[in-house]
């Protein structure tokens, strides 16, 4: 084994281990509870439900519905525009990564930059596939449910429910209601939930990793660490710019939520990279890609502690960007921007089942104020 350890190396091991376990604990407290609530609701929605009932669901802010994966936050922007953006981002970044590998061979993946760059490519690949699927559904499936949801997010509750009521009254034919019920049921399918969950977590992991990579590169490595194998080149400059540019462009267009607790995935990602470095050095790898990761240094525990702490502001920067997007843009473009955070501020999942006979009995049950009382 080529990795020699000293007492301060075990301090580094402890820092990474605590970060890893802490991230798992946060995910267990938040993600696990949310998924159990979702599965319970899912099962209750499928048990003994008549064919002529329609589901109008309101998801908590930390979950993403199927339609949010491929629709834009800008009202009227066709899903095909988001598809083109994601596909072009995927192709361009993939070409740069191939250029990087051809120039330096596969050992270039010893760097965190290449790990992050590849992860962003994976996100855009998933986003492209999901957007293709979304465009197909947009053209071939009834879109009543998603239109109602967009309206619910973009207008006040009173306006929205009256608009949705008019839409439903115009479409009160029983066959259309049954078709919509089947469509909404498909939104809760496990496969769609898995890919949506994977895409969402990849997106938020990329966000923190991109900010961390670019801040360390442009703020620390380039000006203060003149390392021979980290000399600035056009390729390296592009890779540390395009990753943030394309991800921010997608953020400006997408409709994905950005809950804070998923910083844990970002921490797990970085812990995985550090453990990878330890493993390859234990098996004979000679040099460290970044000097602040070296273990044979008495200052290593301080470096590792600083790297652990910097994950919080790195993720926080992107969190503030998304928060600013959902706060400032609706004020500048009130009729064009769809605010996710105004949908409904709930901590639990609520599902309301409407029977088509309600449309023939009267509208008092669909009154916006009455519905708001049910939701709160």
From TrEMBL:
GO terms for cellular component: membrane. It comes from the Eukaryota. Keywords: Membrane, Transmembrane, Transmembrane helix. The chain crosses the membrane at residues 6-27, 80-103, 115-136, 206-226, 232-253, 265-288, 300-321. This is Uncharacterized protein.
């Amino acid at each position: 084994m080529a990795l020699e350890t000293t007492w301060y190396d075990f301090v580094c091991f402890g820092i990474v281990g605590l970060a890893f376990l802490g991230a798992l604990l946060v995910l267990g407290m938040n993600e696990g509870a949310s998924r159990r609530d979702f599965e319970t609701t899912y099962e209750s929605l499928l048990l003994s439900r008549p064919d002529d009932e329609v589901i109008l669901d309101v998801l908590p802010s930390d979950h993403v519905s199927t339609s949010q994966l491929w629709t834009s936050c800008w009202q009227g922007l066709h899903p095909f525009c988001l598809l083109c953006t994601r596909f072009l981002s995927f192709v361009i970044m993939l070409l740069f990564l191939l250029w990087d590998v051809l120039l330096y061979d596969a050992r270039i993946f010893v760097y965190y930059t290449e790990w992050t760059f590849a992860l962003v490519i994976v996100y855009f690949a998933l986003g492209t596939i999901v957007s293709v699927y979304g465009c197909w559904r947009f053209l071939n499936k009834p879109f009543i449910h998603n239109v109602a949801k967009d309206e619910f997010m973009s207008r006040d509750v009173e306006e929205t429910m009256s608009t949705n009521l008019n839409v439903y009254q115009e479409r009160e034919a029983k066959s259309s209601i049954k078709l919509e019920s089947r469509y909404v049921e498909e939104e809760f399918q496990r496969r769609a939930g898995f890919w949506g969950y994977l895409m969402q977590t990849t997106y938020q992991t990329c966000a923190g990793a991109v900010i961390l990579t670019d801040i360390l590169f442009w703020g620390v490595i380039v000006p203060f660490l003149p390392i021979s194998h980290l000399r600035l080149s056009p390729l390296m400059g592009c890779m540390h710019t395009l990753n943030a540019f394309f991800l921010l462009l997608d953020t400006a267009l997408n409709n994905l939520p950005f809950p804070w607790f998923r910083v844990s995935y970002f921490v797990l990602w970085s812990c995985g990279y550090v453990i990878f470095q330890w493993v390859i050095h234990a098996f004979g790898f000679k040099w460290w890609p970044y000097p602040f990761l070296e273990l044979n240094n008495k200052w290593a525990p301080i470096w590792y502690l600083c790297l652990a702490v910097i994950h919080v502001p790195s993720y926080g920067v992107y969190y503030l960007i998304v928060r600013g997007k959902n706060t400032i843009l609706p004020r500048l473009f009130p009729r064009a921007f769809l605010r996710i955070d105004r949908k409904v501020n709930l901590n639990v999942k609520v599902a309301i089942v409407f029977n088509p006979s309600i449309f023939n009995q009267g509208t008092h049950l669909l009154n916006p104020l009455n519905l708001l009382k049910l939701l709160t």
